[in-house]
Every structure is written in C-alpha cells, then in structure tokens.
Amino acid sequence: MYGMLVFTLVLRSIYIVTWVYPWLRGLGYTSLGVFLLGFLLWNVDNIFCDSLRNFRKKVPPIVGVTTQFHAWWHILTGLGSYLHILFSIYTRTLYLRYRPKVKFLFGIWPMILIEPLRKH
C-alpha cells in the first residue's frame, strides 16, 4: 500500500512539473532523485547484506559506518520526503495565489518563505 501511495505521488508530481508548474522541475526531480537513491541503497543493502558485513569487519570503523546503506535509506528517504513536502507547499501556495520563495537556511537547508498577498 505504501508503495502504491508513493507511486501515485510520483506520477502526480511529474504531471505537475511537466504541465502545470514547469519551473519547479528542479525541486520536484531533486526530491524524487534523493528518495530513489535511498531506495537503491536500501536494496543494495538487502541483496549484499552478508558481503557488506564481512567488508565492514575488514575496514576501519569510519569506512564501515559509510557502508551502512540501511541507515542511508532512512536519511535519504527522509530528506526526499522533506523536499517533496516543500514542493507540495510551494505548489499549493501558488495555487492559492500567494508568492512562495525557496530560501536556504545557513545557505544549505531549503525552506519555503511565503509572502503575504498584496492588499489594494
């Protein structure tokens, strides 16, 4: 069921960046790409679990930590979900005729700033 929900969100998002708000392709496809990278790493971890465990025993701990692909799955799908939430907020506020802007906290963390409507 979760997979079907994600698949539906992906299809709807592709429709939105293709036909409704094409200037949002960067944000839409970045959220999808980050999420899919996490999904790929999770599958690699599932398929090669025993090999990765043996590898981690032979390398320094700092290298072993970076090969914990299940952990990367959680980090990347969380980030991909966050970016998709930003995408959804941006498209909704545009629909409501507000003026959203993507700003970066500390120059790296994206967030949405919504300017109020102008009153005449």
Total count of domains: 1
Strand order of the largest sheet: 1-2
Averaging pLDDT over every residue, what do you get? 91
Write down the overall geometry. Answer: elongated
Radius of gyration: 18 Å
Beta-strand residue percentage: 5-15%
Please summarize the sheet with the most strands. 2 strands, antiparallel
- Taking the alpha carbons of the first and last residues, their distance comes to 47 Å
Number of helices, counting only DSSP H or I runs of 4 residues or more: 5
Q: Structural class of the helix and strand makeup?
A: mainly alpha
Total strand segments:
2
Uncertain regions spanning at least 5 consecutive residues: none
- Element-by-element helix/strand order: HHHHHEE
Fraction of residues in helices? over 70%
Structure description:
This protein has 120 residues and is mainly alpha-helical. It has one domain. The chain contains 5 helices and 2 strands, in the order H-H-H-H-H-E-E. Strands 1-2 form a two-stranded antiparallel ribbon. Helix 1 packs antiparallel against helix 2 and helix 2 runs antiparallel to helix 5. The chain starts with a helix and ends in a 5-residue tail after the last strand. The model has no long low-confidence stretch (mean pLDDT 91).
Secondary-structure map:
Blueprint: H1 2-20, H2 25-47, H3 49-58, H4 61-66, H5 69-95, E1 99-105, E2 109-115
Antiparallel strand pairs: 1-2
Helix pairs in contact: 1-2, 2-5
Task: Give me some keywords for this one.
single chain; 120 residues; mainly alpha; two-stranded antiparallel ribbon; 5 helices; 2 strands; elongated
